[in-house]
Design a protein that fits this description.
The chain has 555 residues and is of the alpha/beta class. Helix content is 40%, strand content 23%. The protein is built from 20 helices and 22 strands. The chain has an 8-stranded mixed barrel with strand order 14-15-17-18-19-20-21-22, surrounded by 5 helices. Strands 3-2-1-6-5-4 form a 6-stranded antiparallel sheet. Strands 8-9-7-12-13 form a 5-stranded mixed sheet, sandwiched between helices. Strand 19 (442-448), helix 16 and strand 20 (465-468) form a beta-alpha-beta unit. Helix 6 packs across helix 7 (170-187), helix 12 runs parallel beside helix 13 and helix 13 (395-405) packs parallel to helix 15 (426-439). The protein starts with a helix and ends in a 9-residue tail after the last helix.
Length: 555
C-alpha cells in the first residue's frame, strides 16, 4: 500500500468521527433555513444522543434544561458571517458543555464543536492569575444570579497600573498582578466567583452575608508588595452593586456594567476611593432622558412583550398555566429587567397602555396555545393590573372584547390585583371587580400578606385566587413568622374556597412543604424563570409529554 493511500485512509470521515468520539468532542452544523441541527462525533457521551444525527431547533430547545434555554437560543440566532458563537449549557441527562463555533461565509450556516466544560478549563482562565477571564466570569455569573438571594458584585481597578508598567516593565508589573490574583483567591470563600476582567480590573461576585466584600477585597489587595527590589503599595478604586437573584435578576453583563460605572465614579474621587452604583451614574447614552425617548414608542413597536412563567399544580406537578410578565427587548441594550423600566413607565403615565398591551398580547398567545395543543385543557394566563389600572375607563370593555375575539372561556384570562390597589377604595373596587368577574375574567389577589387589608373586605370581593408573596415562601424554612403567614394564608384560602398560589418556589423541598400545607399551586425559579413565548411553548410541550413540569432538587 502506498503512503498516499494510507494517509487518505487515516483521515477519511469514519476515522475522523472515531477520533472525535475518543476525544469526547462533537461537531455541529446549524442550518436555520432547513430548521436542521446536525451533530456528529461523541454525541452520546455528551448527552446529545437524542439530537444525532440531526434534529429540529424545537428538539434542541426541548433537550436543553429550562434555565439554559437562553443560551440555546443564542446558538440558534442568525448572525452575520464570521460572527463567533460561544455558549455554556446543559442538556437533560448530559453534562455542562461548551458550544463554540462561527457563522460561515455564506451567512446561512453555522458550525462548530461541542466539548465538556472541563476540556476548555484552561481557556476559561486568565493565564497570568488563574482567575476566570471576563467572558467566563460573565457566563458563570449569569448562572449564579439565577439563584435566589442577595448577590453583591465588586469590581476593583488597580490605580496607576500604566505608571507601574513604565517604571518596572511589563514582566515585573505582571508579577504584581499575579500576586494580587493569588491574594484575592486566598481572601474569599471558595464559593465566591473571582475573575480578572480587564488588564487592571478584578471582580468578585458573592453572597455578602457575614462580611463586607468591598472591604475584604481592599484589605487583601492593598498590602505592600516587594518586586525586583521595589516596594509596591497598591491602591484600588472600587465599585460595588447589589442585586436580588432569581427570575427577576439583572443580566450578568448589565450588572457588571453598573459595577464598572461605580468604579469610574470612585476613580474620579481620587486614588483608593469606593462607590456604590446609583442611577445617577448612568452615562449620557444610557441616561434617563434617552431611555424615556426609547420607551415612548417601545410598546407600539412590540419591544415590550410578555414572557411567561409557569404555574404548576403542586399535588400532581401538572402545568396549570402561566403568569405574563413584561420584558423589554431593547434594540441596543438587549433585554432590560423590569426594575430598569417599569418605574419609568409608571412615571410617564404609560401603565394603562402597557397593561392593555400585555392583556391583549397574552390572551392572543393563550388562544394560540389552546388551539394548537388541545391537550392543554384548562390552561390559563394571568396578567397583572398595574396600580390604578383597575379604575381605567374601558377596562371592562377591553376584557369582554379580548375574551370574545379569542374565544376564551370564563376564567382562562386571570387578572391579578394588589392589596394596596384594592384598599384605596374598597367599595368602588368591589363593584369593578364584580363587573370584571361577570365579564368572564378570573381574579387573583396578588402579594397577599404584604398589605394591611381587612379580612372582612376579602369575604366580599369576588376573588377566586390568593397569591402568597415570594418573600414569605422563600423564607418560610428559616423564619418562623414567614412559615406562620404561609400556613395562615393557605388555611384562609381553604376556608373561603379560594385557590392558593405560592410565588418564589425555588426547589422541590419548598414544593413538598407547600403541598403538605394544602397549597394548590406554585410558581418560581424552581420550575422556570419567565420564558419567551417560544421557550414557553417548548416547556408546555415537555410538561404534557412528561406528564409533569420538572422542579429543581435544590435552589
Amino acid at each position: 500500500m502506498s503512503f498516499k493511500i494510507s494517509q487518505r485512509r487515516v483521515w477519511d470521515a469514519t476515522a475522523t468521527l472515531e477520533a472525535l468520539g475518543a476525544a469526547e468532542v462533537a461537531l455541529w452544523l446549524w442550518e436555520p433555513e432547513a430548521d436542521r441541527l446536525r451533530v456528529n462525533g461523541a454525541s452520546r457521551a455528551l448527552g446529545l444522543g437524542p439530537l444525532a444525527p440531526d434534529c429540529s431547533s424545537a428538539a434542541f430547545r426541548a433537550l436543553t434544561l429550562p434555565q439554559d434555554r437562553a443560551q440555546a437560543e443564542d446558538i440558534l440566532k442568525v448572525r452575520p458571517p464570521g460572527s463567533e458563537i460561544i455558549a455554556r449549557l446543559r442538556t437533560r441527562g448530559g453534562e455542562i458543555c461548551i458550544w463554540r463555533g462561527t457563522w460561515l461565509e455564506d451567512g446561512v450556516r453555522a458550525a462548530g464543536v461541542v466539548v465538556p466544560e472541563v476540556k476548555f478549563a484552561a481557556s476559561e482562565r486568565d493565564t497570568l492569575t488563574g482567575l476566570l477571564d471576563r467572558k467566563s466570569f460573565i457566563a458563570q455569573a449569569r448562572e449564579r444570579l439565577a439563584i435566589g438571594g442577595v448577590h453583591e458584585l465588586v469590581v476593583a481597578d488597580v490605580d496607576r497600573l500604566r505608571r507601574l508598567n513604565e517604571a518596572l516593565g511589563h514582566e515585573r508589573a505582571d508579577l504584581v498582578l499575579a500576586a494580587l490574583g493569588s491574594r484575592l483567591a486566598a481572601a474569599f470563600p471558595s464559593e465566591a466567583l473571582l475573575g480578572r476582567i480587564g488588564e487592571d480590573e478584578f471582580a468578585v461576585l458573592c453572597d455578602p452575608a457575614g462580611f463586607e466584600p468591598a472591604e475584604l477585597l481592599r484589605t487583601a489587595l492593598e498590602q505592600p508588595l516587594r518586586v525586583a527590589g521595589f516596594d509596591i503599595h497598591p491602591t484600588l478604586s472600587i465599585g460595588a452593586v447589589a442585586a436580588e437573584g432569581g427570575e427577576d435578576a439583572p443580566e450578568a453583563a448589565e450588572l457588571l456594567r453598573r459595577a464598572e460605572l461605580a468604579v469610574e465614579a470612585a476613580a474620579a474621587n481620587g486614588r483608593g476611593s469606593a462607590a456604590a452604583y446609583g442611577r445617577s451614574m448612568e452615562t449620557d447614552g444610557l441616561s434617563r432622558l434617552a431611555l424615556e425617548a426609547d420607551l415612548r414608542g417601545a410598546i407600539g413597536r412590540g419591544e415590550i412583550t410578555p414572557f411567561f412563567q409557569p404555574v404548576v399544580r403542586l399535588s400532581t406537578g401538572a402545568l396549570s398555566g402561566f403568569e405574563a410578565l413584561a420584558r423589554w427587548i431593547h434594540p441596543r441594550r438587549g433585554m432590560l429587567p423590569p426594575d430598569e423600566f417599569l418605574p419609568l413607565v409608571e412615571e410617564m403615565g404609560l401603565m394603562s397602555e402597557l397593561g392593555e398591551h400585555m392583556m391583549r398580547t397574552s390572551a392572543r398567545q393563550l388562544a394560540a396555545w389552546r388551539r394548537s395543543h388541545p391537550a392543554v385543557g384548562a390552561l390559563t394566563v394571568s396578567v397583572n393590573l398595574s396600580t390604578g389600572e383597575i379604575d381605567r375607563p374601558g377596562l371592562v370593555h377591553d376584557v369582554r372584547q379580548v375574551l370574545r375575539e379569542h374565544d376564551l372561556p370564563r376564567g382562562a384570562l386571570k387578572l391579578e390585583v394588589t392589596e394596596s390597589d384594592i384598599m384605596r377604595d374598597p367599595e368602588r373596587a368591589a363593584v369593578i371587580l364584580k363587573t370584571l368577574r361577570d365579564a368572564g375574567a378570573g381574579l387573583a389577589l396578588d402579594d397577599f400578606g404584604t398589605g394591611f387589608s381587612s379580612l372582612s373586605y376579602l369575604t366580599r370581593l369576588p376573588f377566586d385566587t390568593l397569591k402568597i408573596d415570594r418573600y414569605f415562601v422563600r423564607t418560610m424554612g428559616s423564619n418562623a413568622g414567614s412559615a406562620k403567614i404561609v400556613r395562615s394564608v393557605v388555611k384562609l384560602g381553604q376556608d373561603l374556597d379560594l385557590e392558593v398560589v405560592a410565588e418564589g418556589v425555588e426547589n422541590a423541598e419548598m414544593a413538598r412543604a407547600l403541598q403538605a400545607l394544602g397549597c394548590d399551586y406554585g410558581q418560581g425559579f424552581g420550575y422556570a424563570p419567565a420564558l419567551s413565548p417560544q421557550e414557553a411553548e417548548v416547556y408546555l410541550n415537555e410538561a404534557y409529554v412528561d406528564g409533569a413540569a420538572p422542579v429543581k432538587a435544590r435552589g
